[in-house]
Fold these 3 entries.
Entry 1:
Amino acid sequence: MSLWLRLTIAIIMLFGVAFGAAFWIGTVRWNSVTSRMVEKLKETPSGQEAKTVSFRNFDKLPAPVARYFRMALKDGQPLVRSARVSHKGEFLTSKEGNSWSPFESTQHFSANPPGFVWDATMRMAPLMDVRVRDAYLAGKGSMQARTFAVIPVMDAMGKAELDAGALQRYLAEAIWFPTALLPGKGVTWSAIDDTKALATLTDSGTTVSLEFRFNEKGEVSGVFSPGRFREEKGKYILTPWAVRVWNFEERGGMRIPLEGEVAWQLSGGNMPYWKGRIVDVQYDLAR
């Protein structure tokens, strides 16, 4: 073996070791930050007075909302304080080429006050992963993404548009722990018609509303907003946003949807960007 070939191999091995060390350090740091955020989420006192569901509280609700709660919940069951939801699915990573990447994620929720931390790993290529973390914590939304958990791709926080978008996401995803949508838990319901109702939530000075749509079984079939902030070339644009969910099954004594799709409704048509299913869900109940 020639000297130059040995030197080339040595240099390649050196770069490989350096990259491996950087990847390991980046992963450790990413996981550490996520763990601290989850701890902060769980440390926040719930402040809940009631600890169980009461069907008596449904009497003044819009008819489709009352049907939904009677379908999804049981009278007297404990309220959810926090939840841990694991997903698998696909995420749109290039709208120009309609390119989708598989992802796995774990999401922690706090029911009162509202909050979540979503930690996802996306496989962009056979040897390239991107870590993505979305959060709504203490009234503030944030979004970070790093290739190999090291190279920054996105780091957004401290914007009112991001806070509102994150709170809307929380409100839509509360169907995975539906006791958080009960009256008296921060959400107010307004009638639209026999198949739709408007849910409004205020937290830390931010108020958002979403239209919930119900099918003949009483299940939530979709959630809609005529204007959720979408980032486009560094600017936030109000854009219609729609969620579809299906395949309701019982988990932790509650009926929740296990599959769904999320899309922006653009002038040229719908642009789905998230397709996923729940693979595991765990609840911490009020006692």
Entry 2:
Amino acid sequence: MEAEFAWESLSVIFREPNWRSLIADQWVELSHLPDVEPEFDFAAMYELEKAGHYRTWVARKEGLMIGFIQWMFHKPFAYRGQLWALDCGHYIDCEHRDVHTAIAMWRGAEAALRAIGVTAIRAHDNEKRPLDPFFKRLGYEKVSSMYQRML
């Protein structure tokens, strides 16, 4: 069975039986702070969602949530007539991860973002699981690199 994709509210996602394991798996696989326990601010996520600055694109197979892309929205100071979406977390469960599902999830998200007026997408890569060839295949161009230093 093919995966299905749609916007889902946090109130629906947090009723999903495996959402905690998806987030935990994402953190274990991709965190650059493996010795620091995450402290999710779910109240802030709800507030951002309510204000229209945050949405989640969800992948499901046979009703089970298998992946997601979290999006933050903003109007850049230098381009105030545009609405940009920033990928602030994406993941597909290892058991369901394949190129077809990943491409379908991102293409579906692009169409859904365009439908709500988004004019540019900023997606991020992770050095722990580089996706440069994947994003280039989708037509994205590398515009910057991000560096981190813990203080």
Entry 3:
Amino acid sequence: MSQAWMRISIALFVVATFCAERLPACSCVAAPRASSCADLKPIGPSFVGTVIDIENPPNERDVADQSGLSRYRFRIDEDISGFEEKEVDIYSGRGGGDCSYHFRMGESYFVAPFKGTAALMALYGAEPGKLMAGICTATQPAASATALLKELRARKRGGGATIVGVLRTEPGPDDYNHRIPDATVELRTANTTLSTQTDAGGVYQFYGVPAGTYQFAVKVPADFQVAADKAAVPPSITIANQPCYAKDIYTAQTVPTGSP
């Protein structure tokens, strides 16, 4: 190997080692959806915006320099919480394994930024306090945030109650094996029907529910069999002056005929 190629090889090894030490591999832990009033948290800083400028864009090639931060200039199209200005700069890393979010020019996003701590910003050689975005937060394309935005807008408007709970196959101690995901939960009156879906953990949430008495109704997935003589009748709930109501509901599952 020539001395020139040896110097290049050593330089690439140093850069790769330096980047690996600075930017560890990304690992995200999803936060569970709130299933009780005590779990509900205030709406954090967030907005819907369009990328109008990118400085120092990411370079995801294997041997590319991925150090430093990308700066994304957003036009704020809708303030969800804490963004009354017309434009804002959001920063993120430039690597492929550092949990950074790589926004695209001209596209619309729901952004839930956080302030970079001194320890985090030291990894990027930047001053603390910048508004950062990453893939482990609720940040996502606006087109995929429809359900989330519906909930956040209802919470922002206020003027009604929040109802949260878990849909399970039976009452008693909580057991994830008894939770029912992907089911439709409805609140019904003579003139109104409100509808939502349970998530992967069987959690449902309603926001901005007006005062009144509602009857719950449940529509389970097609592969979830319920026997008429065992099905629990969903309860009713009266909404008055409380800001939040927690209500778990149940419906019994049966094993199909002929199953082992």
